[in-house]
Amino acid sequence: MLCLAASLHSLHALQPSVLHRDIRPENIFLDNHGRILCVDFGVARALTDSSIRSSYAGTEKYMAPEAGTRYARPAEVFSLAGVYAEILCIMLGYFPANSLDTEMANGAWKGRTARTKGLEWLSKEVTADTSLEPDLSLGPLLELIKTMLPIHPHERPKAGDVHDSLRAWRTDYVCCSAVLTNEHDDIVTPPSPEKGPSGSYARVYSS
Predict the structure, then answer these.
(1) Crossing angle of helices 159-169 and 2-12, rounded to 10°
(2) pTM, 2 dp
(3) Termini Cα distance of the chain
(4) CATH number, domain containing residue 73
(5) CA–CA separation, 142 vs 128, rounded Å?
(6) CB atoms inside a 10 Å sphere around CB 177
(7) How many domains does the chain have?
(8) What confidence tens digit (pLDDT) does each residue in 156-190 have?
(9) How far, in Å, CA of 129 to CA of 144, rounded?
(10) What DSSP letter does each residue of 21-43 carry, written as one string?
(11) 33 vs 29, 30, 84, 87, 97, CA distance in Å?
């Protein structure tokens, strides 16, 4: 999880920043050396002189509520929280499709009812879990996930902040534990058209 946050931060910290726009488990791989690979940049966009996109892209289950209207880097943190929730589910000994997804009625994280049900189930299971030592409790991870899922984008942490929280939770990481560079702030100004790599045009808010 630490490497996922570091990878997302590395995209957001680029000049210009890059939005992957389809953060989900199927787009995350490990290579033969155990390194994280984020794949499928087919809908990715560079934030060339822009900070917010209004195009609709991604996978419904992990998409943020604002996707398609005011999409920016916080939307990717929301999607990452959905991935983290499934990792937490696996750490608790469950397969998401047979547990977490069922509790959420196969809904998307942006849906209030599905999100509430999913977090309630995770909270119950984390509280009941006794398989780990007290200092390795999964509670802090669940609390971090909650901070990444607010409806309002500006209430979510940046990917770098997520990374810092994970570094504070554990000290036995073997990679991706270096301090990260800062992301620049988003500045919102009127929209202008920009042509994407696929040839289609998306609405972009230029800065």
Answers:
(1) 160
(2) 0.78
(3) 32
(4) 1.10.510.10
(5) 13
(6) 15
(7) 1
(8) 999 999 999 998 887 777 777 777 777 765 433 33
(9) 18
(10) ---SGGGEEE-TTS-EEE---TT
(11) 11, 8, 22, 20, 28
